[in-house]
Amino acid sequence: MIKKISGYRLMWMMVMFDLPVLTKEEVKEANNFRKLLLGLGFEMAQFSVYTRFVGPKEKSGKYIRKIKENLPPEGKVDIVFFTDKQYENIISLLGGNGKSRRKTEKYLQF
């Protein structure tokens, strides 16, 4: 018997950051941080906003640890959690045509 997991228990993790990029070194650190997020399986929603499906929130600890270990020396990083049900309601508009985009389906195929 397959037990269905509630979309209210499955979580997404969003990392938002504002890092300085005034010097070559700061640009390098910001790019390394972006590459770290991509390497951890995050997808870019906007240039400084990355999301990742983490399943139960308890599984997010390893991602938080990696992010903390690799924080650039300057700037701000915020981490936000929201449920899969909340993610379903995101409306992404592309350009001026008002077309929306959905990416949820590929994460929910077990």
TrEMBL record:
**Positions annotated to bind Mg(2+):** D18
Give the protein's cofactors.
Mg(2+)
Entry-linked SUPFAM superfamilies: TTP0101/SSO1404-like (SSF143430)
UniProt EC number: 3.1.-.-
Question: Has UniProt tagged this entry with the keyword Metal-binding?
Answer: yes
Alphabetically ordered keywords of this record: Antiviral defense, Endonuclease, Hydrolase, Magnesium, Metal-binding, Nuclease
Biological processes, Gene Ontology terms = defense response to virus; maintenance of CRISPR repeat elements
Which molecular function terms from Gene Ontology are attached?
hydrolase activity; metal ion binding; RNA endonuclease activity
Q: What class of enzyme is it?
A: hydrolase
Q: Respond yes or no to whether keyword Oxidoreductase is given for this record.
A: no
Q: Which NCBIfam families match?
A: cas2
Would you identify the family this protein belongs to, as annotated?
Belongs to the CRISPR-associated endoribonuclease Cas2 protein family.
Q: Which HAMAP family match?
A: Cas2 (MF_01471)
Q: What does this protein do?
A: CRISPR (clustered regularly interspaced short palindromic repeat), is an adaptive immune system that provides protection against mobile genetic elements (viruses, transposable elements and conjugative plasmids). CRISPR clusters contain sequences complementary to antecedent mobile elements and target invading nucleic acids. CRISPR clusters are transcribed and processed into CRISPR RNA (crRNA). Functions as a ssRNA-specific endoribonuclease. Involved in the integration of spacer DNA into the CRISPR cassette.
Subunit and partners: Homodimer, forms a heterotetramer with a Cas1 homodimer.
Entry protein name: CRISPR-associated endoribonuclease Cas2
Q: Which gene encodes it?
A: cas2
